[in-house]
Amino acid sequence: MAQKRMLIRERYLQKIVPFIDKPLIKVLLGVRRSGKTVLLSQIRAHIAASGVRDEQLISLNFESFSSRPYLTAEALYRFVAEKSRETKGRLYLFFDEIQEVSDWQKAVNAFLVDFDCDVYLTGSNSNLLSGELATYIAGRYVHFTVYPFSFSETLAYTRALGRTENEEMLFDEYLRFGGLPQRFLLRDPDSVRTYLSDVFSTIVVKDILSRHKFGDSVLLTRLTAFLLENAGNPFSANAICRRLKAEGIHTTVATLLDYIAAVKEAMVVVTAPRYDLKGKALLSTNEKYYAIDLGLRNNVKSSDILDYSKLYENAVFLELLSRGYEINVGKEGPYEIDFVCMKGREKCYVQVAYLLSDASVVEREFRPLREIGDNFPKYVISGDRHDFSGEGILHRNILRFLTENS
Q1: Is 330 left (phi over 0), alpha (psi -120 to 50) or beta?
Q2: Could you give the CA distance from residue 42 to residue 201 in angstroms, rounded to a whole number?
Q3: pLDDT tens, position by position, 96-146
Q4: What's the CA gap between 128 and 185, in Å, rounded?
Q5: Domains of the chain, with CATH numbers?
Q6: pTM for the whole thing?
Q7: Among 168, 191, 169, 192, residue whose Cα is nearest residue 180
């Protein structure tokens, strides 16, 4: 990607830069094509700008054919050892899609022990840092989740590309086609849909089927599409099993749970557990799933009609995630709060609606927030331009919310 077409992802750099030259492995996790590779190059450029010589900066993309000789821990270790012998000063190691290297954790742990180096990794699997092998680097890494472009990043990038559409038009396009960075270089809608279909297929085949050795590609594809299409809806594995059976796809709940776990590992969907505000406890049933990208979600829907209410909810969820919040679905007695958001000691409650079209809708959205007894901020976010704030509850227009700094 040309430098002039690169969006500097300041929100992520601000989090990562303080860890440069610290004795911790920096791991960037994110769904395929979310921009991890470009962000890795931006970290490299930041380090180079501080005066580090080119020969100290070592980059490998393990999906490149040129990196095939280094796809085992032993081969990768020998490669870094040779670079260490040849180079004066600290090595900065940038390894893209590290999960392609077998037993990679053993090699990376040895780098920290044997060489003067600073290590940066990317991966497309949320379980990259779990399991038995992860014990090799336990306590020696920090990780950052990289999401597709937020709407504010979408605005900045489209302006950098010279596009002049107004904010509302670009927002509608964002709701339809999402924020995967490379899709912005395609202007024809059919080309964008083809690109999104290819990304979806690659995720299903490469990041899920081949990694987990699942035998039923039809079940996996349909399940992934189902989870994306029904983003924001509460359902259980039993309910999904019954739905798929009605479509002629027979499976068991146990098999379905394995497949769902794999879809979540590939970071195609993100879950929001239910949280009982009165009992202050997580609930084990009917968690909600949200799409990691609206374009991927819409591209597998059975209808081209945009369901704005669900898209608004998913867009706000992604924005809150990118701001660093841990998100649950709240339960307050008989009422549901869309999002209970926590970040350290910070907390807020968020309801999302398409439009507050009449008094009954206003009551439906504001009532659950009024029932909450604490004094943390409470928000209702909708497409309305009129400010409905009142009774200690703040109303925000969705465009303003998505573009305000936070």
Answers
A1: beta
A2: 28
A3: 999 999 999 999 999 999 999 999 999 998 888 887 768 889 899 999 999
A4: 30
A5: 3-145 (3.40.50.300), 151-403 (no CATH)
A6: 0.93
A7: 192
